[in-house]
Amino acid sequence: MRYTLVVEKNYRGVTVSDSVVVFTGMGGGDCGFRFEVGKRFIVYGVTGDAIASDYASRYPLSGPNIFRTNICFRTRAYDDEEDRALDELK
Q1: pLDDT digit of tens for each residue in the chain (90 aa)?
Q2: Which helix (H) or strand (E) holds 76?
């Protein structure tokens, strides 16, 4: 799945623009994360440089503001406590 997300806050990593492209699996056995339109999320992701070469060869996953995530990366619906914890790590 390919999602375009509007960035409200950046906790760590590269500087992002107003939106980013996030790739994830379809769900089920591939651990894909399902984003829902209109909801907020805290996204843990990796950039194209950190994506396995076999995966990257099948998908255009490199470039500015392109990330990959899945349920194993801790990506989740927005949570105030998670937001505060991440701010403390800055």
Answers
A1: 999 999 989 888 767 778 889 999 887 788 899 999 999 999 999 886 555 555 555 555 667 788 889 999 999 999 999 999 999 987
A2: strand 76-77
